[in-house]
Amino acid sequence: MKMKYAALIKDTFAEIKATRNRFLSIFAIIALGTGFFAGIKTTCPNMITTAQAYYEQYNLADIQLKSTMGFSEEDLNAISSLIYVQNMKPGYSLDAFCNTGDESSIVRIYSIDVAKCLTDGEYIDIPVLTEGRFPNEPYECIVDNGIMAGEYRLGDKITLSGEDNSSLEDSIKYNTFTIVGFVQSVQYVSFERGSSNIGNGNITSYMYVPDSAFTYEVYTDIYIRLRDTASVSFDDELYDQIIESYTEKLEKVADEREQERYDEIYGENSEKLDAAQRELDEAKEQYEAGVEQYNDNMASASRQLEDGKLQLQMLIEIRDILAATQPEDLKTVAEIYPQLAEILKTFGGDFITLPEDYSEIELLAYIASLESLKNNAAKYLDSTIKNAREQIKTGEREMKEAKATYPKQFEEAKAELDKAQAEIDDGYKQLSEVEKPTWYVLNRSNNPGYGSFAEDAERIDKIAAVFPVFFILVAALVCLTTMTRMVEEQRMQIGTLKALGYPRFLIMAKYLSYAALASFLGSAVGLAIGFKLFPTVIFNAYRVMYIMPSIIAPFKWGFGLIVTAVAVFCTTLTSFFACYKELFDTPASLMRPKSPPAGKVILLERIGFLWNRIGFLRKVSIRNLLRYKKRILMTIVGVAGCAALTFTGFGLQYAISAIVDLQYENVFQYDLLGIYESDLSDEQRGEISALLDKSDYASSHIMGGYHSVNASVGASGTKRECYLMVPEDTAELKDYIILQTRVEKNPISITPGGVVIAEKLSNLCSVKVGDKLRVYISDTAYADIPVSGITENYALNFIYMDKNTYEDYFGKPCDINCFMAIMPDTTKNSSLSTEMLSNSHILALSYTSESGKTFRDLVSSLNYIVVVIIICAGALAFVVLYNLANINVTERRRELATIKVLGFFDGEVSTYVNRESIISTLLGIACGMFLGVPLEKFVIKTAEVDSVMFVPNVTASCYIYAIVLTFGFSLIVNAVMHFKLKKIDMVESLKSVE
Amino acid sequence: MSAFVEMRDVYKRYKMGEVVITASDGVTFEINKGEFAVIVGSSGAGKTTVLNMLGGMDSCDEGSIIVDGVDISSFSSKQLTEYRRYDIGFVFQFYNLMQNLTVRENVELATQICKNHERPEVVLKQVGLSERMKNFPSQLSGGEQQRVSIARALAKKPKLLLCDEPTGALDYNTGKTILKLLQDTCRNEGRTVIVITHNQAITPMADRIITMKSAKVISEIVNLNPTPVENIEW
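Above: the input entities. Below: the structure tokens describing the complete assembly.
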């Protein structure tokens, strides 16, 4: 059995060896086609899997919780006890200023539990160490290698400070840290570092310090990994759904915890205040008691003094009376004055009564006793008066002293009591102002670069859908021509084999296996290179913008097998068609040389005067063009494909790069957009206005409402994310945002009762002027509003509405929360930011000069893709043209040899051949331009992301570049052909078909 | 009278891997102006090689080839092209006409590049194809095509007319007509004609007969009484 086929197999291999170029051309075009197709098609999935693996390896958090009052132990327990939480990590974070020489930049400091991080594989957000080591001491730190590596070395110290050089001791123990390592954080996949609410709001870098370096009492963040996201790719819709559902759940937990925490704080503090109040009340009582007592004492002392004085008065009176009284009258007087009688009694005042008959001695004794009584009484009275006077003096002095000291003390005491009361009152007031803490449930879309990475990957995927198709078509064409040529050349052999009795299928087998082998090998090599090359090249282009590990670009066996099968099938099929006709011819006719296609009078010839004008050799070319129709057609198709691809590549690049320029030239005229809290009072808004008006900042500004909303068509339409802008003064808006139709540039004004929408939005929702658009200001509140205008816009989807329209449709006035300013001097941006952000009501600032820059970076990444496309288009053109030119030359060998014999110079021979090639190339380019325009439009529509509208026009330069490049490629081919033609051996070629 | 065409000790060797094939092994002969020369020999004798060298399509390794006093063996590739352009007319065995050019245009192909040429109509009249000027080669018979080929060669007013087996693809009668045409050109216009053939029978019509075998000239005979073609039978 083997013997039968041995010769044929040998023949096939000999053929391959002999016609190496032909084999290689099929090999090459298939390799190119499959490599490109497979490479580009797998780039997006590989980017996603690479990122996913990266996120998994370093345990990127799914959800981050933040609270306005931090997290207590109970909060942590509440979270870790949730069954759907796989793992959680509490942490501290702080934004501070880092001083490098004169400049200070903002750095975000994260805490890290070093011991846990090094041992626990599940530790959330493990930093990737690129140099150095992890910190051992609390004053050591590890820093962002993306930014810091340029300015710092291992061992350097970083100094931190707070706003206005304030101390950070409430937050962190040290203000100087020693760098012991450089890291890469999986939270930051781009070079953006996020925004802060200190300074000018722009964070430049991040660093990690050990937990123990922080002095906070509560944790500032909680990072969570959910159970359900374990094997779900971040790109999958399912992931978003999971996050949404658990965010809801966590928000409920948040509500509970917020309330509890509030109650806790409120309770704690109100208890303290109550206790303090009670103490104070006691103190007050004591005070009042003291005051009362003093008053009482003073009153009684005063009364006593008065009494004393009265008594003194009385005593003086009595003394005077006594002095004036004769002893004999004592008794009588004593009867009148009882007080005197009292005193006299003490001195024996029992008046000795004279007997009726009294003697003189008795009388004398009586008078003597009365006199001594009087004297004693007088003495007594004197001393008593003296004492009384002294007492009164003492009493008065003491009262005076008391009056000097006590009231003052009382005043002081009162003041202190009042102060204490005021403090307590203040405490109560503050307590009443204490709000419930608010928890924020954030997800990965908060990480800088995270969302845009996924979007960029998607973009490539969309482009991948379109371009490779071309290559496959062209590959099929090239195969067809090559195999046709081969079979024609081998007519004799086929005839001979047939004559020898070989069955058709065996003969065909040779050609089929030739083609199949070439395409199989081509596919294998193309895939082997393509699977690795394209994803790596494209991803590395993106790594200019993103911090990612190198791409995981595996050889996808399943996909590869399918592609190979298709490639082999296509080439075999085309070979079959090429062979088919020949094989049905009789052996005899096969062995005769094929009669060359007959010459015919062409149409142009009939136009006599025109025909005679054309130079002779040109006539030859024109005739040739019409003679070798199939080949010329293929050249045209190949060149058209190349031109169209190149055109699309350039068109795409323009469409994207022009967005930025056009958006900021034709639409946005403002320089700064600021967002502030929605519920500010007129006064607070006035403050912001004043700040802007300060002479060297903004030359003018307007205020308005700027809200993130959704829009759709009807209830079932997909909701699109948009921004709603409701200016306070509609007429003034035109200086800040230009609303006009894109094509005619007719100005559009915001009319009452309608909305003006961005063009992209009108495309997405398929609405035109007059149709109704459903605008959702929240999940449940929406209104169907007629579209009154469609405005030119490229980035993001905007809806413009008049504030009355808003109120009419939504039943409440629109919250004014933004301003747009025109700033003539952009060097002031930084200082304005610093001032603005110190006003705590301002939430965010966005300078158009900076957002323009972000967009431009995005564009530059796309340039790489465009370059790749163009190079492949060029390679495609080259292979096609070379192949066809080759066939051309070999088929017309004899003709070319004849003219060489006739004495045509090498240059003339080349021109003879190339003229046709150039004409067909030009025709091909023209077709390519026709084809390119709809292709470019299609690619733009497909590759567009929802939030952006690519510029639908192309500039002349796109045409020019495409034409020049394609023509250039064909010139290269012609040059190569020239050398081939030179080598045509006249002698060999003129030999008969022997 | 010095020879118009002279080949002196010409060697031509081909290297095919390790084997060296000597296609011309010290070929020497002379042909005078206006002569009708025939180079005859069996297949593989080296006749075509000689013709190719004479026609400037190939170079020799040793020796000299002098045509009209000029040694063409030292010509560069460009000079050879010029030589072919202006001085040589070549008639192929298989006509080698441009299929998509008319008869007239085929001749024009040659005249357009030649400074001093005959007008196509004139030369086509000479070969008897005035009525067929607008036809394409596929519409002509073999003999007619060969005549066009001759016309093309003659239109250049070449110094030398080289014919490689001109009658090889034609039948007896047509072949004779062609030979007659060649002979007439030679006689009437004094053009030097060299014909390569393996057909010994036509040698009597020639003025000079050069016989080759195994890459060597084995005899050179001058025929003082050439026979007119009509009288030759083979």
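Note for the figure: Chain B has a mean pLDDT of 88.
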